[in-house]
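DM from R.C. (forwarded with permission)

"hey, sorry to bug you on a friday — could you get me a structure for this? deadline for the figure draft is monday and I only need the backbone to look sensible"
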Amino acid sequence: MTQIEYARAGIVTPQMRIVADKEGIPVEELAVRLARGTIVILRNGMRNSEPVAVGEGLAVKVSASVGTSVEQADPEEEVKKAEVAVRAGADTVMDLSITAMDRTRRRILQAVPRPVGTLPMYQALTEAREKAGSTVKMGVEDLFGVIAQQVADGVDFLALHCATNRDTLESAKRTGRTDCSVSYGGSHLVGWMVHNQMENPLYEHFDRLLTICHTHDVTLSLADGWRPGCLADSLDAAQVREMIVLGELVQRAREQGIQVMVKGPGHVPLTEINNTITLQKRLCAGAPYFVFGPLVTDITPGYDHVNAAIGGAVSALAGADFLCYVTAVEHLRLPNRREVQEGVIAARIAAHAADLTRKPGAWQWDWDMSRARKSLDWEKQLVLAIDQERARSMRQTRSANSGDTCAMCGRFCAMKVVAQYLGKEADVC
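My reply, with the result:
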């Protein structure tokens, strides 16, 4: 049985108890949301990894993406990046490799104690190119063979473009998008459908996909092939039509006892984020929403992690549950280890900012930091910092005359002045 089936049967599993304790909510309440599909627990039954829950009433989670490319084909380097991401606080890791896929995935699964997700289409397309010379020659059986193998390897969640079908393709044609498709898997899938004059096999054979996921309770992450790649395409006909199809597939997955979440955009203007999240939640019956960024402007190469943190915070405030990090080098190249760490921290800041409005307990961290600042307890401030390593490094480079105050105010430190006038033990202010 899957976690959603256990919840519907009134059975509390060890995974539910672990998640409920971590989130600070009654396990019975968690089970109710799990049963109706507004929460998912990411954990393949084949892996002894830490279960992570995503969804209604829970802390906003952060995912980091790594993976080999044609230019950077070293699996061990991607494993190191995955480990850096986890140390920086990523809740999950996604392997988006397009070379040495089996080796990279299996090494990451061994090295990372958190849930791991993949896009099986990447491997199926690469193997078709290597074997037959073109991605349009990908066989349906080959695609499902890759999916089954990744599930058997222990992958916890699968991102698949099941709703990028011929109907949504026609909507994209009629819309006249600025950037037609910016999804690697989605764009090649569109090319496959056009060349072969066939329906998307993930849509046509969706029940077969659900059967594979059921074998080890793998969560299905329904990816959006028509996510807007620029602000001008946000909430156009193709994106909205795909959302409608995604909602239909969410219902079918739940009926078969499969945990399911939905992946979203993309590039979205600030004024449209709330509408996007609200529409997705309505059409997909409250399924957990996994957003890529989103980026709120198109002009920030080199600073896209900042751009995405703004969009991520606003999205999570509007109801998104899961943030896919974006690094500073998005649109430019693959990230190095430091850029992976910075991307995770930026996304975690966005997630925590939203948690302060969603979970009362989230305030304790900020309260502790405020008290440490008041008492000029620098060691505690450094321990509480979201990036302790960077904060400690910066503190160590302060002016030699700073003493127990900050380098800016020095002996005129506001905290110290107030303490002198009111008494160090005073609880005024």
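R.C.: lifesaver. The mean pLDDT is 94.
me: no worries. Residues 364-422 form one domain.
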